[in-house]
Amino acid sequence: MKKYAIILAGGSGTRMGGEIPKQFLLLKDKPILMQTLLKFAVIKDVELILVLPDNQLIFWEDLCKKYKFSLSYTLVLGGDTRVESVKNALNYISDEKSLVAIHDGVRPLIEVKTIEKSFEKAQKDGNAITVISLKDSIRQKINKENTNETKSETKSVNRDDFYLVQTPQTFQTKSIKEAYQAKNIEHLTDDASVLENIGGKIFVIEGSYQNIKITTPEDLVIANAFFS
């Protein structure tokens, strides 16, 4: 089956505390987004689709010239929300008998073997969602309504019953395109939830604790350490 990889890069960098969007910050010797694209370019016969907001195109083009970045990919304009951005990228794919991996542009530490495994699992079972087990104990919030105030209580839950969700999230294209045609999905935060919304069964693969999403200055320090 033909393989596509949608790389979503629409962050503003607010939590980084700077003016440069996080995906353009330097990781080792290249911007984060370039490092992410290079990981997926290793996969045989994969077609890359990069999703960027309109107001970041010129900056990205300047970076590509500066770092002599000539990787082949298709550029798609992002929407106002993540859901709209994914829809725009999926609309580019006309071959519904294909596979598509959807990945955060600020997860440059994804392992190539995980990407390969996600495509293999999705071809076999329909989808493959990258997850990791929790290391820490967790507690669930319980909000109890009183007449005068809302008290926030908590209870212990078994961490073995939960996963932390990462990307890539890989699907057979026909099913995920159908899922994104549903209404009232803007509140859903990942692609697995969108497929589950129309009754799709979700399958998982094991990810890596190094596959962090770089959203804060601390994340960038950790990512540089892993890269070294």
What would you say this structure looks like, in words?
It is built from seven helices and eleven strands. Helix content is 31%, strand content 28%. The protein has a single domain (3-227), classed as Spore Coat Polysaccharide Biosynthesis Protein SpsA, Chain A, CATH 3.90.550.10. The chain has helices spanning 32-41, 57-66, 82-92, 112-125, 173-179, 191-197, 217-227, and strands at 3-8, 26-27, 30-31, 46-52, 74-77, 99-104, 127-133, 138-145, 150-157, 163-172, 204-206. It is globular and about 55 Å long. It has 228 residues and is an alpha/beta fold. The strands form three sheets. It has a seven-stranded mixed β-sheet with strand order 5-4-1-6-10-7-11, with helices on both faces. Strands 2-3 form a two-stranded antiparallel sheet. A two-stranded antiparallel ribbon has the order 8-9. The longest helix has 14 residues, at 112-125. The two termini are 35 Å apart. Helix 5 (173-179) packs across helix 6 (191-197).
Features:
two-stranded antiparallel ribbon, seven-stranded mixed β-sheet, Spore Coat Polysaccharide Biosynthesis Protein SpsA, Chain A, globular, 11 strands, 228 residues, 7 helices, single chain, alpha/beta
Give a nutshell description of this structure.
The chain is 31% helix and 28% strand. The mean pLDDT is 93. The chain is built from 7 helices and 11 strands.
The radius of gyration over CA amounts to 19 Å
Total number of domains: 1
Q: Structural class of the secondary structure composition?
A: alpha/beta
* Count of beta strands: 11
CATH topology: Spore Coat Polysaccharide Biosynthesis Protein SpsA, Chain A
The CATH top-level class label: Alpha Beta
* C-alpha end-to-end distance: 35 Å
**Are there runs of 5+ residues with pLDDT below 50, and where?**
none
Fourth-tier CATH superfamily name? Spore Coat Polysaccharide Biosynthesis Protein SpsA, Chain A
Largest sheet: 7 strands, mixed
Helix content: 25-40%
Global morphology: globular
Q: What is the second-level CATH architecture?
A: Alpha-Beta Complex
Order of SSEs, N→C? EEEHEHEHEHEEEEHHEH
> Mean pLDDT score, rounded?
93
